[in-house]
Protein backbone atom coordinates (compact mmCIF):
# COMPACT_ATOMS: atom_id res chain seq x y z
CA UNK A 1 0.00 0.00 0.00
CA UNK A 2 2.82 2.37 0.89
CA UNK A 3 4.39 1.72 -2.52
CA UNK A 4 1.13 2.66 -4.28
CA UNK A 5 0.80 5.87 -2.29
CA UNK A 6 4.42 6.76 -3.08
CA UNK A 7 3.92 6.15 -6.81
CA UNK A 8 0.74 8.22 -6.88
CA UNK A 9 2.41 11.10 -5.10
CA UNK A 10 5.37 10.92 -7.52
CA UNK A 11 3.09 10.98 -10.56
CA UNK A 12 1.07 13.89 -9.19
CA UNK A 13 4.20 15.85 -8.32
CA UNK A 14 5.69 15.45 -11.81
CA UNK A 15 2.52 15.83 -13.88
CA UNK A 16 2.65 19.60 -13.55
CA UNK A 17 6.36 19.90 -14.36
CA UNK A 18 7.08 22.32 -17.17
CA UNK A 19 8.41 20.79 -20.39
CA UNK A 20 9.88 23.14 -22.98
CA UNK A 21 8.78 21.62 -26.27
CA UNK A 22 10.48 24.20 -28.48
CA UNK A 23 12.29 27.52 -28.49
CA UNK A 24 11.24 29.59 -31.48
CA UNK A 25 14.00 32.16 -31.95
CA UNK A 26 13.47 35.74 -30.87
CA UNK A 27 15.65 37.26 -33.58
CA UNK A 28 15.67 40.60 -31.77
CA UNK A 29 17.88 39.01 -29.11
CA UNK A 30 21.58 38.25 -29.41
CA UNK A 31 22.64 34.82 -30.69
CA UNK A 32 24.83 32.86 -28.28
CA UNK A 33 26.47 29.43 -28.28
CA UNK A 34 23.08 27.85 -27.48
CA UNK A 35 21.22 29.85 -30.13
CA UNK A 36 18.80 32.74 -29.84
CA UNK A 37 16.61 33.44 -26.81
CA UNK A 38 13.10 32.00 -26.98
CA UNK A 39 10.13 33.89 -28.29
CA UNK A 40 7.37 34.20 -25.70
CA UNK A 41 5.15 31.13 -26.13
CA UNK A 42 1.98 33.23 -26.12
CA UNK A 43 3.17 34.84 -29.38
CA UNK A 44 4.18 31.59 -31.13
CA UNK A 45 1.97 30.56 -34.06
CA UNK A 46 1.88 27.69 -36.53
CA UNK A 47 3.66 29.90 -39.06
CA UNK A 48 6.77 29.83 -36.85
CA UNK A 49 7.17 26.13 -37.70
CA UNK A 50 6.71 26.50 -41.47
CA UNK A 51 9.18 28.03 -43.93
CA UNK A 52 8.17 28.43 -47.60
CA UNK A 53 11.45 29.97 -48.72
CA UNK A 54 12.83 26.85 -50.41
CA UNK A 55 9.83 26.35 -52.69
CA UNK A 56 11.12 28.79 -55.31
CA UNK A 57 14.39 28.48 -57.27
CA UNK A 58 17.26 30.80 -56.47
CA UNK A 59 18.77 33.24 -58.96
CA UNK A 60 21.68 31.56 -60.76
CA UNK A 61 22.59 34.62 -62.83
CA UNK A 62 25.92 35.24 -61.13
CA UNK A 63 29.61 34.43 -61.33
CA UNK A 64 29.16 30.83 -60.12
CA UNK A 65 25.91 30.15 -62.04
CA UNK A 66 24.43 28.79 -58.82
CA UNK A 67 22.36 29.85 -55.83
CA UNK A 68 22.10 28.71 -52.24
CA UNK A 69 18.84 29.54 -50.46
CA UNK A 70 19.29 28.98 -46.72
CA UNK A 71 16.70 27.97 -44.13
CA UNK A 72 18.94 28.58 -41.14
CA UNK A 73 17.68 29.98 -37.85
CA UNK A 74 18.02 33.55 -39.14
CA UNK A 75 15.47 32.75 -41.87
CA UNK A 76 13.52 30.01 -40.08
CA UNK A 77 13.25 30.81 -36.33
CA UNK A 78 11.41 27.55 -35.62
CA UNK A 79 14.62 25.50 -35.93
CA UNK A 80 16.23 27.34 -33.03
CA UNK A 81 17.66 24.84 -30.54
CA UNK A 82 16.62 21.80 -32.59
CA UNK A 83 20.04 21.01 -34.05
CA UNK A 84 19.02 21.10 -37.70
CA UNK A 85 18.44 23.43 -40.64
CA UNK A 86 18.26 23.24 -44.43
CA UNK A 87 19.16 24.90 -47.71
CA UNK A 88 18.23 24.66 -51.37
CA UNK A 89 20.90 24.47 -54.08
CA UNK A 90 20.09 25.56 -57.64
CA UNK A 91 22.96 24.95 -60.06
CA UNK A 92 22.66 25.99 -63.71
CA UNK A 93 24.51 24.05 -66.43
CA UNK A 94 28.20 24.72 -65.92
CA UNK A 95 27.52 26.09 -62.44
CA UNK A 96 29.41 25.32 -59.26
CA UNK A 97 29.16 25.68 -55.51
CA UNK A 98 32.88 26.37 -54.92
CA UNK A 99 35.00 24.74 -52.25
CA UNK A 100 33.55 25.72 -48.91
CA UNK A 101 33.15 24.53 -45.35
CA UNK A 102 30.46 24.54 -42.65
CA UNK A 103 32.39 24.94 -39.37
CA UNK A 104 29.36 24.11 -37.24
CA UNK A 105 27.56 21.21 -38.91
CA UNK A 106 27.56 17.98 -40.87
CA UNK A 107 25.66 18.13 -44.15
CA UNK A 108 23.36 15.62 -45.85
CA UNK A 109 22.69 16.40 -49.53
CA UNK A 110 19.68 15.04 -51.46
CA UNK A 111 19.57 15.56 -55.23
CA UNK A 112 16.04 16.23 -56.49
CA UNK A 113 16.73 17.18 -60.11
CA UNK A 114 19.54 16.66 -62.60
CA UNK A 115 23.01 15.38 -61.81
CA UNK A 116 25.58 16.81 -59.41
CA UNK A 117 29.24 15.90 -59.04
CA UNK A 118 29.98 16.41 -55.35
CA UNK A 119 32.83 15.63 -53.05
CA UNK A 120 34.90 16.53 -50.01
CA UNK A 121 38.55 16.52 -48.99
CA UNK A 122 39.48 14.66 -45.82
CA UNK A 123 42.04 15.92 -43.30
CA UNK A 124 44.39 13.33 -44.83
CA UNK A 125 43.97 15.15 -48.20
CA UNK A 126 42.01 12.29 -49.74
CA UNK A 127 39.25 13.34 -52.13
CA UNK A 128 35.93 11.49 -51.98
CA UNK A 129 33.67 12.39 -54.91
CA UNK A 130 30.71 10.98 -56.77
CA UNK A 131 28.29 12.03 -59.49
CA UNK A 132 24.84 11.89 -57.93
CA UNK A 133 21.49 11.51 -59.67
CA UNK A 134 17.97 12.27 -58.51
CA UNK A 135 17.11 10.62 -55.20
CA UNK A 136 20.70 9.94 -54.17
CA UNK A 137 22.28 11.21 -50.95
CA UNK A 138 25.79 12.20 -49.95
CA UNK A 139 27.17 13.28 -46.58
CA UNK A 140 29.84 15.90 -45.92
CA UNK A 141 31.50 15.71 -42.48
CA UNK A 142 31.61 18.86 -40.37
CA UNK A 143 34.38 21.32 -41.15
CA UNK A 144 35.74 19.61 -44.27
CA UNK A 145 36.10 21.43 -47.58
CA UNK A 146 33.52 20.24 -50.10
CA UNK A 147 31.92 21.23 -53.42
CA UNK A 148 29.01 20.63 -55.77
CA UNK A 149 29.15 20.99 -59.56
CA UNK A 150 26.36 20.60 -62.13
CA UNK A 151 27.03 17.49 -64.19
CA UNK A 152 25.41 17.38 -67.61
CA UNK A 153 23.59 19.94 -69.72
CA UNK A 154 20.53 20.49 -67.53
CA UNK A 155 19.89 22.41 -64.33
CA UNK A 156 20.43 20.59 -61.06
CA UNK A 157 18.56 21.06 -57.78
CA UNK A 158 19.41 19.63 -54.39
CA UNK A 159 18.37 20.10 -50.77
CA UNK A 160 20.86 20.08 -47.92
CA UNK A 161 20.08 19.23 -44.30
CA UNK A 162 22.50 20.40 -41.61
CA UNK A 163 23.06 19.17 -38.06
CA UNK A 164 22.86 22.69 -36.64
CA UNK A 165 20.46 25.62 -36.78
CA UNK A 166 23.49 27.80 -37.61
CA UNK A 167 25.93 25.68 -39.64
CA UNK A 168 28.09 28.58 -40.73
CA UNK A 169 29.59 28.99 -44.20
CA UNK A 170 33.01 29.96 -45.51
CA UNK A 171 33.76 29.81 -49.25
CA UNK A 172 37.48 29.36 -49.85
CA UNK A 173 37.72 31.50 -53.00
CA UNK A 174 35.78 34.36 -51.41
CA UNK A 175 37.85 34.16 -48.22
CA UNK A 176 41.02 34.56 -50.28
CA UNK A 177 40.00 36.82 -53.14
CA UNK A 178 36.91 38.76 -51.99
CA UNK A 179 38.50 39.93 -48.74
CA UNK A 180 41.24 42.40 -47.76
CA UNK A 181 43.77 39.56 -47.33
CA UNK A 182 46.87 41.15 -48.86
CA UNK A 183 48.24 39.86 -52.17
CA UNK A 184 51.78 39.36 -50.79
CA UNK A 185 50.46 37.22 -47.92
CA UNK A 186 48.21 35.18 -50.20
CA UNK A 187 51.16 34.59 -52.52
CA UNK A 188 53.32 33.58 -49.57
CA UNK A 189 50.79 31.25 -47.94
CA UNK A 190 49.32 29.60 -51.04
CA UNK A 191 52.27 29.59 -53.51
CA UNK A 192 50.03 31.24 -56.11
CA UNK A 193 51.51 33.74 -58.53
CA UNK A 194 50.83 37.36 -57.52
CA UNK A 195 49.54 38.18 -61.02
CA UNK A 196 46.90 35.46 -60.71
CA UNK A 197 45.99 36.59 -57.19
CA UNK A 198 45.45 40.17 -58.40
CA UNK A 199 43.37 38.93 -61.32
CA UNK A 200 41.12 36.88 -59.02
CA UNK A 201 40.79 39.79 -56.59
CA UNK A 202 39.69 42.00 -59.48
CA UNK A 203 37.03 39.46 -60.45
CA UNK A 204 35.70 38.86 -56.92
CA UNK A 205 36.11 42.38 -55.56
CA UNK A 206 38.88 41.85 -53.03
CA UNK A 207 41.41 44.45 -51.94
CA UNK A 208 45.02 44.48 -50.78
TrEMBL record:
Keyword terms, alphabetized: Apoplast, Disulfide bond, Glycoprotein, Manganese, Metal-binding, Receptor, Secreted, Signal
Cysteines paired by S-S bonds: 23-38
Pfam families associated with the record: Cupin_1
Domain of life, source organism: Eukaryota
Keyword Disulfide bond: yes
Binding site for Mn(2+): 100, 102, 107, 146
Molecular function via GO: manganese ion binding
Protein name, entry field: Germin-like protein
Organism: Clitoria ternatea
Lineage: Eukaryota, Viridiplantae, Streptophyta, Embryophyta, Tracheophyta
